[in-house]
Write a structure and sequence with these properties.
This protein has 111 residues and is mainly β. It has one domain. Helices cover 13% and strands 32% of the residues. It has a three-stranded antiparallel sheet with strand order 1-2-3, with no helix packed on it. Strands 4-5 form a two-stranded antiparallel ribbon.
Length: 111
């Protein structure tokens, strides 16, 4: 059985998905997804856990055009770019005394 679907959703649904997980963690967080037969339908076509892998934006406006997901079934190995976030930089004594943090990469690939 193929698990590929081209799904069209309303803009408010895209906004709700984007608000559920904040950037930059959106493309490294799994969440449940249900695919229904149509707008207002209660007939469930498929459900499962998905991982967002890409956000397509309009180059001029930055508006989200579409989202790309992969099914993230239990036991499936996926390569994920996880954002590196430093906490406590504002209270670090070394940084307060003109020190600096050298960041080699903004993301870390995990399997």
């Amino acid at each position: 059985m193929s698990r590929k679907h081209l799904v069209t959703i309303e803009w408010k649904q895209i906004q709700a998905i984007l608000k559920s997980v904040e950037l930059p963690f959106f493309c490294s967080t799994t969440f449940p997804l249900q695919i229904l037969a149509g707008s207002g339908s209660s007939h469930l076509l498929e459900s499962g856990t998905v991982l967002p892998i890409k956000i397509h934006r309009d180059e001029a406006t930055g508006k989200v055009l579409n989202l790309v997901f992969v099914w993230a079934d239990d036991g499936l190995e996926l390569k994920v770019d996880v954002p590196v976030v430093f906490k406590g930089e504002d209270v670090c004594p070394g940084l307060q005394k003109a020190g600096c943090v050298y960041v080699k990469s903004q993301v870390m690939a995990l399997i």
